[in-house]
Amino acid sequence: MSQPLKSATVESDSLYSIRGLTKIYGEGPTAVSALRGVDLDLPKSAMVVLLGASGSGKSTFLNIIGGLDEATAGTVMFEDQELTALGPSALTEYRRNAVSFVFQFYNLVASLTARENVALITEIAEDPMTPEEALSMVGLEGRIDHFPSQLSGGEQQRVAIARAIAKRPKVMLCDEPTGALDSQTGVRVLEALDQVNRELGTTTLLITHNVVIADMADRLLRFADGALVEDRDNPKRVAPAALKW
Amino acid sequence: MVNLPAWLGSLDRKLFRDIWRLRSQALAIALVIAAGIGMVVMSFGMMRSLEASRDTYYDRYRFADIFASAVRVPDSLLDDIRAIDGVSIVEGRLTSGATLDIPGISEPITARIHSLPASGMPAVNALVLRSGRLPDPGRPDEVLASEKFAEAARIGLGDDIDGLLYGKRQQFRIVGTVLSPEYVYAIGPGQIFPDNRRFGVLWMGQEHLSAALNSTNSFNEALIRLERGGNLQDVIDRVDVILERYGGRGASPREDQLSDRFLENELTQLSSMTAILPPIFLGVAAFLINMVLSRLVESEREIIGLLTAFGYRSRTIMFHYAKLALVLSIPGLALGLLLGSWMGRGLAGLYQDFFVFPFLTYRAGFDVFFISCLVAILVVLLGAAQTVRRIGKLTAAEAMRPPVPPNYSGGFARFVGRIKGLDEPTRIILRGVARRPLRSMLGSVGIAAALGLYITSAGSTDNVRMMIDLMFNQANRADVNVVFTEDRDDRALFELARLPGVMRVEPVRYVGAKLSAGHRSKSETITGMKPAGDLNRLIDLDNGIVEPPIQGLMISYGLSKELAVGPGDMVDIQVTDGRRPQISMPVTSILSSPVSNPAYVDFKNLGPIMREAELSSGAYLSIDATQTDKLYRRLKDMPMIAGFSQRSAALRGIEETIGETMGIVRLFNVAFSGLIVFGVVYNNARISLAERARDLVSLRVLGYRRSEVSYILLGELALIVMVGLPLGMIFGYYLSLQISEAVSGDLFIIPFALSAATVAFAILIVLITAALSALFVRGRLDRLNLVSVLKTRE
C-alpha cells in the first residue's frame, strides 16, 4: 500500500475548512434555505457521521463539498484549494482525483461486470489499485465477473465501495449507503467502509438516518433546518459488527 | 407550462403536458411524417393533375388518335379515310422541316412547320391561341409560333424572321402564339429534352405552305380522330392500305407520338416514385413513434400501475397512450398536407418548363387529403400498437414494481468482456447496442433508408448526366449535323467537304419502314451508318462502341421487345420510301443504349436494298471552330439543306433547361434525407439519454469529464449510423437499379450511372445531419443535474 496507515484519531491539520456555507434554492418569497452559514473544520483520515432529518441540509452539505453543487455564499477550502471558486471543469478534476462517492442506490452501470465497474474508475485515476485488489478489500473476490443484475443489494453496494476506493481518494462521501439494505447486509457494507478508513486513512463522511451508526465514527455532526446543531467527538469507536439496529 | 382549459379531464391534461414535455422529439417525428405525407400529397396529386390536364387538353383540343404520314397524298383521299368504319374526323395537313435565322442567335434553329386548314383552326390537334390572331389567308408570310419558342427566342407579335423552307429563303411574320396538344413535350429531331431556343414549331396557311413545298391539293400527314369504340388497329391497317401508293410511312397510334410518349413516361416515373418513397418515410415515422412511446411507457410504469390501482380500466389507459400517439402525429399530418400542396404547386411550375399545358394547376383534391390522413393515422397506430398492447397486459402490482434490472449477462456481453484492451465506456456502448438489437437495428435501418433515398434520387441525376454524356460526347461527336431536303448522292457530300472550316464529313441515311415479325409490327426509321465512323458512333451500354452490322439489322433493345425478336430472328421490312422495296432481314444484334435509333444497317447495304445508288439523307461534320460563323452563313443559304444543328449549342440548351430543375430536386433530396436522419438520430439520442442519464450522471459524479461521458452516448449513435451506412449504400444501389429498370420504357433505356461522388455526398449529408442532431442532444447532456439522479431509484 502506498498510503501510510494512520490511527483513527482526530488530527489538528484540517482537510476541509468551511466558513459561512450557505445554500438557497430559488428566489424571492419561494426561496428555501438549505444551508444557513455552516462553519466547520474536518481533519484528515477522520470517520465522520452526519445525522439529521430529511431536509436538514446534510445532503446539500455533502453535495457541495463533493463538488456536485454550488454554494450560494461562503467558502469551502479543500487543503489549499478554494472549492467554492472553481468552475465546472475544475470541479470535475477535483471529483476525478480527490473524492469518491457511495450512494444509497449504488449507481452501478448495469452493462458492466463488477470488475468492469471498478475499472471505470481505475482507467481514469492517476494511481489506482487494480480492480481485483479493490474488490478483494470489500470481500468480493469471488463475484468479480458478475453483472449487477446477478448480485444482491449488499454485494452491489460493496462493488460501489470498491469502485470508490480503487483510486485511493483522499475523501469518501457516502450518502445513506445502507439505506436500501437490511441490517445484516448493512453491517457488512459498514465493515468495508470502516476497513478502508482504517487501512487507507481515507477521510470518510457518512450520511445516515440511523443514529446507531454514529457509534462507529470518530465524530458526529447533526444538522437541523440547514444549520449544524451538534458537533461532538466520539472517543470510543465501536466496530460495525457490534452495531445493532 | 401551458395553461389548459378547465373542462379537460385529468388524463387528457396529462396527455397535453406529456406532449409538451416531449415537444422536441414530437417535432422530429412530425417532420418525418410531414415529409412522408407531403410526398404522398405532392406526387399523388401531381400525377392526377397531370393526367386530368392531359385528358382534358387532348379531349378539348381534339388530339389525334392516329398519325399517318406519307410522301404526298391527293386531298381527295381524305374522303376514303373518312369512310373507314370508326373514323370520326380526319384532317390532312402538310408538315415540313425548316431552319430559321433569328437575329441575336448565331446558331441554327430547327423548326417544324405545319399547315393550317382554310378555316384557320385545325379540326384535329386544335391550337390554343395564346396571343395575337390566326394568319390572314391572304398574307403568305403570316405564321403562328409555339409560345415557348417565341418566348425563348425573344420574338414577339409582328416580328419578321428569316428561314429556309424546302431549299428556299422565306420570311415569316409572327401574328400569334399558340399551344398544341401535339407539343406538350416539344423536342426537336434527336433531342431528349425540350430546348425551346433551338427548336420551334410554326403553323402557316395551307395554301402558302403547299406553294412553298410544291404540293398543291395534297397532304403529307393525316390526323385521325376515332369514334367512341372505334377499332384502332383496324383503322391503322386500312389507312396503311390507302396510303401505300402515296409513300405512306405507316400510320401510328397516339401512344407512339413522341410528346405523348414522353408524357406517359413521366407519369410512369411519377407513379413508381409515389410507390417507393412515401412508404419509406412513413415506415421510419412508425418506428420513431414506437420508440418514443415505448420509452414513455417504460418511464411511466408506476403511473400506469397507480391508475390501474385506482380502478381505471386497462382499455382506458391503452386508449390514453394511443391517443397520445395520434395527437403526436397531428402536427406532422397538418404540416404534410400543407407541405405537399405547396410542393405540388412548385412541382407543377417545374413541369411547365418541360410539359406545356394551357392549364396545369396542381389540385390534390379532397380524396387525396382524406387518404393521406387515413394512411398517417394507420401508420401512427401501427407504430403505437406494440407498446399499447404491452400496457394492456400490465397488472397494477407488476406496474408498480420497478422494472427488473436490465440483465446484461448474455453471450454477447460476455464476449465483449473477453475483448482485451477495450475501455469500459466502449464496453458500455457495445453492450447497450446489443441489449436492444431490434431497436439498434431499426435505427440503422432508418439511417440506411435516408441514405438510400438520397442515393436513389440523386442517382437519377447521374443517370441523366450519363445520358447526356453518351449522347453528346460519345455517340454524336459531330460539331454540326446536317439534314438534306431530300436524299442526295455523293456530290452533296463533296459540296459539304468544300465548305469553309469543314474538316470531316460522314454521311447518314434514314429510311422509313414498317418492320414486322409475326403479327407484331412497328413503323420506324432505319438508319444507315458507315462502319468505323468517328463523328457518330453506336454506344452499347454493355459493350461500349459497336459497329453497324456488316450484314443484317441491328435493332434497339426497345424495338426488340416490341417485335419480340432476338438475334437470328427474321424481320420483314416494308420500306415506305423510294421504290418501297420489301425484304426480309435477320436481326444480327441488339443495341442496348439510352440514346439509340430503332434500327441500323450498314450504309453501303442500303443502296442495294433500296434498288438505287448510294444516297445520303444528311451528314455529320467536324469543323474548325474559328470558321463557324462563316460556315453557318453558307449552310443557311444552301437550298439542299433542310436544317442543321450544332452540338455545343444543343448541349448548352440542355444544361440550361435541366440545370435549374436538377438543383431544386437536389435541394429537396437533401432536405428530405436530412429530415429522416435527424428524426432517427435525434430520437435515438434522446431516448438513449433518458435511459442512460443515471449511468452518465454517475460517471460525471465519479469524475468523468463531459467529453468522456459524451463518448458513451454519442458513440452508440455513431455505431448505429456506421452500421446504417453500408446498409444504405446497398439499399440505395438496388433501389436506383430498380427504379431505373422500372422507368426504362420503349422510349429509352435509362442508364444506370450511380457515381461514387453521389454516394460520397450522400454519406456526407448523413454524417453532417447525424452530427448536428447529436450536438443538440449533447447540449442536454451538459445540462443534466448531477444531484437529482443520485437520489432516485432507477
Structure explained in plain terms:
The complex is a heterodimer of chains A (245) and B (794). Chain A is α/β, with parallel strands linked by helices and 245 residues long. Chain A has a single domain, classed as Rossmann fold, CATH 3.40.50.300. Chain A contains six helices and ten strands, in the order βββαββαβαααβαβββ. In chain A, the strands form two sheets. Chain A has a six-stranded mixed sheet, sandwiched between helices. A four-stranded antiparallel sheet of chain A has the order 2-1-4-5, covered by helices on one side. The N terminus of chain A is likely disordered. Chain B has 22 helices and 22 strands. The chains are: A alpha/beta (245), B alpha+beta (794). At the A-B interface, helix 2, strand 6 and helix 3 of A face helix 13 and helix 19 of B.
**Which regions of chain B are unreliable across 5 or more consecutive residues at pLDDT < 50?**
none
Order the strands across the largest sheet of chain A as they lie in space: 6-7-8-3-9-10
Number of strands of chain B: 22
Kindly give the count of domains of chain A. Answer: 1
Whole-angstrom Rg of chain B: 34 Å
Helix content of chain B: 40-55%
- First-residue to last-residue Cα separation of chain B: 26 Å
Query: Which CATH architecture of chain A would you pick?
Result: 3-Layer(aba) Sandwich
Strand content of chain B: 15-25%
The general outline of chain B is elongated
Rounded to an integer in angstroms, the radius of gyration calculated over CA atoms of chain A is 17 Å
Kindly name the structural category of chain A.
alpha/beta
- Tell me what portion of residues of chain A adopts beta-strand conformation: 25-35%
Side by side, the strands of the main sheet of chain B go: 3-4-9-6-8-7
Helix/strand-derived category of chain B reads alpha+beta
Q: How many extended strands of chain A?
A: 10
Label the overall shape of chain A.
globular
Q: In which range does the helix fraction of chain A lie?
A: 25-40%
